[in-house]
Design goal:
Number of helices of chain C: 20
Number of strands of chain C: 2
Radius of gyration of chain C: 21 Å
Strand content of chain B: under 5%
Number of helices of chain B: 20
Strand content of chain C: under 5%
Oligomer: heterotetramer
Shape of chain B: globular
Structural class of chain B: mainly alpha
Chains: A mainly alpha (125), B mainly alpha (492), C mainly alpha (488), D mainly alpha (497)
Largest sheet of chain B: 3 strands, mixed
Helix content of chain C: over 70%
Radius of gyration of chain B: 22 Å
Structural class of chain C: mainly alpha
Helix content of chain B: over 70%
Shape of chain C: globular
Order of helices and strands of chain B: EHHEEHHHHHHHHHHHHHHHHHH
Distance between the termini of chain B: 21 Å
Strand order of the largest sheet of chain C: 1-2
Order of helices and strands of chain C: HHEEHHHHHHHHHHHHHHHHHH
Amino acid sequence: MVGPNLFINYGEAVAVILFGIGFSNLLLQKNLIKKIIGLNIMDTAIYLFLAEKGYIAGRVAPIVVDGVQEVEAYINPVPSGLVLTGIVVSVSVTAIMLSLTIRLYRRYHTLDLDEISMRLKKEGL
Amino acid sequence: MNESVTILFPIFFPILMGVLLLVGKEPKKKALLSRYTGGVLLLTALMVLGLVWGKEVSFTMFFLTGRLPVYFRVDSIGKVFAFVVTVVWVLAGFFSFEYMKAENAPRRFFGFYLIVYGILIGLDFSGNMITFYMFYEMMTLLSMPLVLHERTKAAIMAGLKYMFYSFCGAYMVLFGLYFVYRYANTLTFTAKGVLDATLTAGNEKLLLVVAFFMLLGFSVKAGMFPFHGWLPVAHPEAPAPASAVLSGVIVKGGVLGIIRVIFYLFGADFLRGTWVQTTMLILSLVTVFMGSMLAYLEKGMKKRLAYSTVSQVSYILFGLFLLDPVSLTGSLLHVVFHAFIKCGLFLCAGAIIFRTGKRRVDELTGIGKEMPVTIWCFTLCSLALIGIPPASGFISKWYLCEGALHTKTAVFSWLGPVILLISALLTAGYLLPVTIKGFFPGEDYDYAALVKKEPVKLMLVPMVILAALAFVLGIVPEGLIRQLSAIAGQLM
Amino acid sequence: MMLLAAILIPIVGGALVMVLPFKKRAHMAVYLEIVVVITSLLVGLIISEGTTGRFPIVKFVNNLSLSLELDGCGMVFAGLVSALWPLAMLYSFEYMKKEKHEKVFFMFYTMTYGITLGIAFAEDMLTMYFFYELLTLVTVPLVLHTLSREAILASRKYLYYSLGGAAFAFIGLVFLMIYGTTVDFTYGGVLTPETLGDKTNTLLLIYVIAFMGFGVKAAICPFNSWLPQAGVAPTPVTALLHAVAVVKAGAFAIIRLTYYSFGTDFLIGTWAQYVVMGVVMFTIVYGCSRALKETHIKRRLAYSTISNLSYILFGVTIMTPLGLAGALTHLVFHAVMKICSFFCAGAIMYQTEKHYVHELDGLGRKMPAVFGVFTVSSLALMGVPGLCGFISKWNLANAAVMSGNVMACFGIGALLISALLTAIYMLSIVIRAFFPPEDFDMESVKEYRDPNWMMLFPLFLFVAAMIIFGLHSAPIVQFFTDISNGVL
Amino acid sequence: MNFVQNFPFFSIILSMFSGIVSSVLPARAAKWLNTILISVVGAMSAVLLVYLMGTGESYVYWMGHFPAPWGNEIRAGVLEAGMALFFCVIMLLSMTGGRKKLLGEVEYSKHNLYYILVNLLLSSLLALVYTNDLFTAYVFVEINTISACGLIMIRQNGRTIEAAVRYMIMSLLGSGLFLISLCMLYDLTGHLLMSNIKESVAVLVSHHQYSVPLMTTIGLMCAGLAIKSALFPFHSWLPDAYGYSTVSSAAMLSSLVSKGYIFLLIKIFYRVIGFEIIAESKVINVLFVFGLLGMIFGSLSAIRENDIRRMISFSSVAQIGYIYMGFGLGTESGMTASIFHILSHAATKSLLFIAAIGLTDVSKGSRQIVDLTGAGYRNKIAGFAFTVGSLSMVGVPMFSGFVSKLLFAEASIGHTYKMLPAVIVLAISTILNAIYFMKTVIRIYVPERRKDCEVITIKNEKEYAVTLVCFIVLNVMLGMLSQPIVQWIHTGLSMFG
């Protein structure tokens, strides 16, 4: 089942690989900024996936320009909608993460999460 | 067999009196104490003798639970033992009035002395195994104060050891008792056994084990190897009268127990020729030899006598385990004789200690000059114990050997008598030196320093009586023998 | 209804102690004594009326309910408790004089009474489990009472052990709910072949687990170490709870589990029976030998309790009606003997502040009453004929022999060995007390006296009970036999 | 179209709106608004519950009257309504209970922000409960995460921020997984509405198509939500987050947020995949194993802990283990038990958190268990409440914990392989709970020896006391009158199917 299908749906394949990369970054990186980058990679990968799903070769965006054609003419608009929403969400999340990072950096002058927690232990808070 | 309450009096009267004596307050004069005790002893003795000469009576007191009555009965064996107990107890009691003056807390001694007397009577007259067991345990518990009377560290340890061994035995008996209860339709003593043939069918092996346990349990009290350990420790520690009754009578409690188990619960036929009999015979013979050997090697006077008790009681056991009428007669005879003899010996030893404070045999050189009467009694008793005709010991041993010889118990029929003879020689070896050294101190003994240390009448009389009994019964034994062989006949 | 009342009176009455303003200590004493006595009378009344019907209190999750009912076993346990509690109260008033914040103590002490009755009256497994847990919780403050370091440790241990045990017993409960026809206690068990199916072995395993679970309170080896530690509690607690109420509750629960829930027909002859019997036999010997080594009086008694509890369980594990009868007999008789000896120990401590065996030399001369009673109770514990201990031992051994179960016969051996050890560790105390070494100077103990009547009265009552049960036990044993045959 | 049916929509919108409003309100007004809001929403859910009980069937609410498959839907059944009600109650109590602490720990100017977050949290929870659309669910999951993160970090110190970051990261991982699995599901079925997805999944399964991708999807989804609700191996963020945030946040996080995700998971099981399919899949076995592990290891680390707040947090790791264990059984009764445990744990855990605060306050604010010696006497009501909570946790009869334990055990029995492990672990974890909770209880009732420290006995203000009492009552009710609740859960589940 691998072989040709995989090659045909290379977009999805790439998306999933990217997701993996992002996920592992978010999970494993010590540096907060890198974590956040990983997060974004992960989300973008998902949007790529959605877009791949949404696009059907040889059709146009569902925007009526020259009279209404039949449904077959257009691609499925829902994934696009999803992507948009997703982007909004991810942006807001990223914003929060960044703000948190800034706070931490101001406090501890480092972006290394482990080191921060070590410091906390020292503070004995 | 007729019910009668009279049986309870000799049992509970002394117990009650003893308790009163213990809880009551110290009397003004010492004399009062001894009078009181003496009175009680005599009264009880009278009652017991009344029962002994009277015909067989029984009395059921109440039921412990289910089918367990507390039940008394005066039967032939009981009569014999009760008689022996009474004689010994009274005489030793009178001896002790004088003796205890030296000891502290005489009141406690006499209190327990009376109580144990009652209990022993109860033991002899108890009519079923539960009652017997009950009094057996009480005997242990209440005779313990007699052992540790002097309250030295040694005495207390001796008391504990005594208790430990006795309870070991008692519980072995109890263990067996449960099973007997299961396989017998009653626990009431009946000649030739109570086992219910239908129930026992197929369970003989189990029952043999059970019987073995029960015999072993009682033989602890009788000081049989390997459970003799407590006896040479406990008896010497007690004051002389106490050790006299301990050695003379209380060990016989074990003997009585064994008689009850063999002839009244299981029946001789059930055990005859089984591995149980063999084992027991071996053990008893070992004990006979070992006991006299140890006695021979022992230097302490009372301890030596204690060892001799070990061996002598095993004579009795040997006779019992032969499961033969003649040897049984022999055993019963020996029960009676040994009681008197050993009691007499201990009293003599006590008298010596009381007067001279000498406890070791080798100190006794020339003692015969100092207290001739005592030593004469001692000599007579020794002769009786050794079994030199016409003294009593001879008769019993004769019966034992005769019984042994015409039983079918393979090797024992000749091995037994041999060992008995050897041990008789040893007995001579460990008893006679006292007399000889006592009367013939030898050249270098200076008669100038000699002072008469004869004890007072109150002590002499019991000794003389006992010695006389030990000797006379040997000369005119017919009546006694007739009685006992009749009993033996009933049982087999 | 009356059952509920009997349970609630002491609980409420106990709780009220905290709020009621007492002018003098005596008032509180009188008040509490009244509460307890009323309860006992009520219980007596109930018992005299015989078995009652089912009385549901609250509905629990899916058609389980808390409900009360009085049957034979319940009668025994309830009767026992209600007989002992007033006396213990009387005793503790005197004893607690020297202790601190006794209001709290008496509150919980009284409440425990109610809870224990609850266990006795419980009609089904769930109800019993409910009261069982409560019992643990209510008794913890009593163990904690002195608030000393070891008291804290002891109470912790007590909690962990009891709750843990309950957790395992709980499994049994749930299995009964699923596989039993009902969780109500029914003589002969609630398991039926069709419900079982192929689950037999699983259920046996579960039985063992539940047995161990309840066994924790009954202090079977290896779950017994909490009991001696809990001895730091004031003596009335040790005596009444850790010799009677709590530990007996464990044994009682096991009786319920074995005879009224799983059913002996299902268990007898299975590997489960041999496992539990083996454990119990081991505990019998183990407890005694530990008692022998122990020199602290109360702990020594506690160990002896451990082994004696296992006598009861031994009777249970024989799994014949006779066995149950024996178990019940020992349940009652041991309660009397042990509470008596504990009270003696308490009296000694109270009067002389002596806690160790080797300190007792010659006290017997000065406190004849206490030590006399102690002697009697020790003889009873040894099982000397004529005292109650002998009867229960006899019934147990008899049941063992009758059952024809080989292992049970070895069990008798265990009983007797432990009896021997009991003789040693109890009588060694007695001998010390009455026959001190000759060089011992009586001056050192001259100021000690017997305690006052509040302490002595219960003791003498117990002695009387021991002797009466010992000499004339036929009726009560008959009663037990009826119960164990499922008549009551 | 009954008017009552609008209530779910109203309550969501209302709480979002009031969130926005309270950003411009002064703290005091915001507080009142929040209180009123929660109570109103609670009332509405109650009415809805009653209504649904009456009709006896769930209904679907079209947002903007677009019919499926285009429109976005809200679905309300008995279970949803009840959950909403329960969440409201808990939230209200947690707020009132933690308010005093809030004053102490968060500077006054930030309070209205706090209330914003709370309102948002409420709305997102409601949405999670009610929505019938997976993507909406995702969006609100994120909102939930964000507001929860805010709740953690509102108390400004290094710990909380660090905790917030960790929490954020973990839950982002979770939501990432959730999102991808959601997309794959969309890819497989072409739908986002739960009911439609369910139909097509059923078709797929019946034709044995795409079985591997389907299972992967389910697995990913479970993993995502498991991470977010701190199932055992993913619980690393939990103790800090619960342990150092201000108390009402901690209470809400432990009893509401994680429960919201779990409820979503339940919905996915029933409404998206179909319970039969789940029950057959291997996924639940994994859940079962991790549930068991959680029960043990959560408790173990709680025993090692000597900071009371962190100890309680670790115990909730164990409790979540219970819930997943119930899922793992893959039976109706197991599910019932889990849902009941959601309730009982929520009630108990927030009670414990708030009581713990009361205890630490009277111990010079130290959270070390050793310093709590005798706190039970200094603050009676808190001590009592803590005791009740602990007993319920240990599973003593007549408290809620016992009933859920009972249900779990009952559910586990009869299962061929999972029966014994389940019951044994249940018993063991009970012992472990007993160990650490009872240790604390005894500790707080031991009067302290050291006379040198002045004994602080604070007068509890009414609000706090009342809260605790309410919690206790709630607990006991769950414990004693569990019958109707279990009944309700059954009907709710049947409506799901």
